[in-house]
Amino acid sequence: MMQLSGPTMGPAAGGPAREVVVFLHGLGADGNDLIGLAPYFAQALPHAAFAAPDAPFPCDMAPYGYQWFSLQDRSPAMMLAGVQAAAPLLDAYIDDLLAKLGLGADRLALVGFSQGTMMALHVAPRRAEAVAGVVGYSGRLLAAASLPADVRSRPPVLLIHGDADQIVPFDSLELSANALKAAGIAVTAERRPGLGHSIDEPGIAQAIAFLTERFSG
């Protein structure tokens, strides 16, 4: 099986990691796109390691960057097939990372953006052991109808979405939150007024507060 890799950052405090945050980038980007958030998160999580794997496939809609799955065909069936094909690669990456750091699943959090959020929301509830939490920016839950039958763990989720998003419609926030709640998953949904398809400072602060609480618990 293909192995994912990408940029990492060790704990700001030095020493062994007590927790790890995995950033999952969006379509046409790479791990470097989100690892730049690590220093901000590290201010509140000085003992956390950070990792941002490149998605497994070259982007088929741009001359550079990577994708978790193709979005040329955005039919529900094709998007589900895409996320299902990429999921084992992300699961293997998470398993390997936890083993290397000597940490349990409850010491890992996933932070996704756009397509990376789609991956996080698909993979996390289907893992046998709950991760500490999931933060999803500007994304959506794919194949919501299949989640109740597939769910194996219920990590808390924070969804953050700009109401001026022209890439992933803002109504994805409520639809995703309702579907996750229907599967018994605790969800906090945050609307960012006037924000397009991006991450802003208040959204970063919300994520940091959420993960600090999750790891301290």
TrEMBL record:
Keywords: Hydrolase. SUPFAM superfamilies: alpha/beta-Hydrolases (SSF53474). InterPro entries: AB_hydrolase_fold, LYPA1-2/EST-like, PLipase/COase/thioEstase. One of its GO terms (molecular function) is hydrolase activity. Residues 14-212 form the Phospholipase/carboxylesterase/thioesterase domain. It holds the Pfam family Abhydrolase_2. PANTHER family: LYSOPHOSPHOLIPASE-LIKE PROTEIN 1, LYSOPHOSPHOLIPASE-RELATED. Belongs to the AB hydrolase superfamily. AB hydrolase 2 family. This is Phospholipase/carboxylesterase. It comes from Stella humosa.
